[in-house]
Amino acid sequence: MNPRILIVEDEGPLVTLLRYNLEREGFVVSEASDGEEALLRAAEDHPDLILLDWMLPLLSGIEVCRRLRRQPESATVPIIMLTARGEEGDKVRGLDYGADDYMTKPFSPAELIARIRALLRRARPELAAEQLDFADLTMDLAAHRVRRDGREIHLGPTEFRLLHYLLQHPGRVFSREQLLDAVWGRDVYVEARTVDVHIRRLRKALNGDGEADLIRTVRAAGYALDRPAEVQNARAR
Ligand code: CA
Question: Distance between CA atoms of 116 and 113, rounded to whole angstroms?
Fold first, then answer.
């Protein structure tokens, strides 16, 4: 799953520039052009990081920052404040209200991306990781390869994304709807049972002869990636 970045900025050309550079680096971008919309988008899109302009219509960046920090679901999301020259004195206040970093306009997109990556590495190491391991499974993100016990596993793009998501949250049970949102995206209409089809394909690809099933089906709840022992215990119960 590529990291999601919410751009909160009312200067159209800057939004276009940021979107272009972020998408080129593989980030998934959403945008808001005023403070009210920023709070709405943050609640709906669950961004992994927020770029927040200081001077915004309706609600200032600082007020948005304060309110985001008060909501449990956005209390820890990394925030980079974007300030104009002359507003530097306000940076300190921005940091007081819970921003993690700030950039003064104009800034270089390359430097912004370096700071974004640094914050994501700190806040969500799994998003910056090049390789994910679980039991005898290894996912190499750079090479786009999956191995189980050294054997190469070939996955379709959807199964790859599904496994990537599960690998980021081992042991956690996800409903079909949660998996749809995370893997297919919120804007795509797909039936919940499509998830079952792809889970079946993923299982078939992952589980060789005599190998334990790493995916646990939780009746009426969804699916989880689990250690074989836990899977077996769950079955025995
Ligand atoms: Ca502005």
Answer: 5
Average pLDDT over residues 58-79: 91
Q: Are residues 12 and 107 in the same domain?
A: yes
- Same domain flag for 151 and 99: no
The amino acid sitting at 158 is T
Query: Which of these, 48, 22, 45, lies nearest to 32 by C-alpha position?
Result: 45
CA torsion, points 190, 152, 208, 172, in degrees to nearest 10? -50
Is the pLDDT assigned to residue 129 strictly greater than 70? no
Instruction: Answer yes or no: are the C-beta atoms of 136 and 149 closer than 8 Å.
Output: yes
Does the structure show a pLDDT above 90 at 144?
A: no
To 10 degrees, the CA torsion angle through 186, 55, 119, 109? Answer: 90
pTM of the full structure: 0.58
**What is the C-alpha separation between 52 and 35, in angstroms, rounded?**
9
Q: How many domains does the chain have?
A: 2
Distance 180 CA to ligand 1 centre (A): 35
Task: Tell me the residue range of the domain where 206 lies.
Answer: 131-236
> 152 C-alpha to center of ligand 1: Å?
50
CA of 65 to the centre of ligand 1 (A): 15
How many Å lie between the centroid of ligand 1 and the Cα of residue 11?
Answer: 6
Q: Distance, CA 84 to ligand 1 centroid (Å)? A: 8
- 21: number of Cβ within 10 Å: 16
The CA 190 to ligand 1 mean position distance, Å, reads 37
Q: Which residues pair with 32 in a beta bridge?
A: 8
As a whole number of angstroms, the distance between CA 15 and CA 3 comes to: 18
